[in-house]
Design a protein that fits this description.
CATH architecture of the largest domain: 2-Layer Sandwich
Strand order of the largest sheet: 3-4-5-6-7-8
Helix content: 25-40%
Structural class: alpha+beta
Number of domains: 2
Bound molecules: adenosine monophosphate, magnesium ion
CATH topology of the largest domain: Fructose-1,6-Bisphosphatase, Chain A, domain 1
Pfam families: Inositol_P
EC number: 3.1.3.57, 3.1.3.7
Family: Belongs to the inositol monophosphatase superfamily.
Oligomer: single chain
InterPro entries: CysQ/Inositol_MonoPase, Inositol_monoP_metal-BS, Inositol_monophosphatase-like, Inositol_monophosphatase_CS
CATH superfamily of the largest domain: Fructose-1,6-Bisphosphatase, subunit A, domain 1
GO biological process, one term: phosphatidylinositol phosphate biosynthetic process
Strand content: 15-25%
Radius of gyration: 18 Å
Number of strands: 13
């Protein structure tokens, strides 16, 4: 089964196990206590965990899928990793499912894998570890189609740490229980470390009953999936393709929507600009176009201009 399954099914099954291994590396670095923080830019830290998790993911996926283009947040990666970091097993329970017809014939050359080895680095360094996720997004040509969101510090009821959420358009989602957001309220989830005046103006345009400020694109989309928020608003550039590819695929596999502030999907082919210049607007169980309409003209002129 494993070797004959379509590429997308093997890529998803391999990414599930690889994201789990990367999560273990992220926990290990924190336990050792030396984070090795380097500033990549303003409010843009990188730690030993970002670097090591990326090496594990890129080496493992490249080893299994040498013809698939992989783009990681942390730039060039050393493919020589210890055996302990080279993940070769596929998630067998994922492979038991049947491949949606639309992706059955996709060839390795049709894919781009967007890797954020540690989303929510600022929060990781500040002790908000529940905001941290490992994101592996799978695009076919322009579209975000499959995604893995792994939470290394999620506390399972049995005490085990970590959980892995997946979504594949045409198949569905797994690893969590979807809960609708409460009726009669409008809760927004947004950034806690990258706000500015224009973004605040966009937030003010919604009649929200609550604004949750949390780290990471992955964690914010999880809040939509688990009914903690109705919409994710980020009306400024700053997020990158590796932040949104996996969350978009998982959210849309669950029936939600993730776009820029104009309601347009981003393209995820290998040649696109990495920055999501026109912000992020995501929702589940809402009329997405109504949310797009509410963005103030001044914000749209500054952020969402064509
Ligand atoms: P946040 O919602 O602020 O946690 O951001 C979600 C993702 O986008 C994280 O990976 C951030 O590092 C990234 N991001 C957002 N805004 C910026 C920015 N101004 N500079 C660098 N990274 C950003
Ligand atoms: Mg990120
Ligand atoms: Mg990151």
């Amino acid at each position: 089964m494993a070797t004959t399954a379509p590429v997308i099914m093997r890529l998803m099954a391999s990414s599930i196990n690889t994201a789990k291994r990367a999560g273990g590396i992220i926990r290990d670095v924190l336990k050792k206590g030396d984070l090795g923080i380097v500033d990549k830019g303003k409010n843009d830290p990188q730690t030993e965990a970002d670097r090591s998790a990326q090496r594990c993911i890129i080496a493992s996926l490249t080893n299994k899928f040498p013809k698939v283009k992989i783009i990681g947040e942390e730039g060039g990666s050393d493919l020589n990793v210890c055996d302990d970091w080279l993940v070769t097993e596929l998630d067998e329970s994922f492979l038991q499912q049947s491949c949606p017809a639309e992706w059955q014939d996709a060839r390795p050359e049709d894919f781009v894998v967007w890797v954020d080895p540690l989303d929510g680095t600022a929060e990781y360094t500040q002790g908000f570890v529940e905001h941290v996720t490992v994101l592996i997004g799978i695009a076919v040509k322009d579209a975000a189609v499959g995604g893995i969101i792994h939470q290394p510090f999620y506390q399972q009821p049995d005490g085990e740490l970590g959980r892995t959420i997946w979504g594949l358009k045409g198949l569905g989602t797994g690893g969590f229980t979807a809960v609708p957001a409460p009726a009669g309220q409008f809760i927004i989830t947004t950034t806690r470390s990258h706000s500015n005046a224009l973004h605040q103006q966009a937030l003010n345009a919604y009649a929200s009953t609550e604004v949750l400020k949390v780290g990471g694109a992955g964690f914010k989309v999880l809040q939509l999936l688990e009914g903690k928020a109705h919409a994710y608003v980020f009306a400024t550039p700053g997020c990158k393709k590796w932040d949104t590819c996996a969350p978009e695929a998982v959210l849309e596999a669950q029936g939600g929507c993730l776009t820029n502030i104009n309601g347009e999907h981003y393209a995820y082919n290998a040649d696109v600009e990495h920055v999501n210049r026109k912000g992020v607007l995501a929702s589940l169980g809402q009329n997405h176009s109504d949310l797009v309409e509410k963005i103030p003209a001044e914000v749209r002129a500054a952020v969402g201009a064509k």
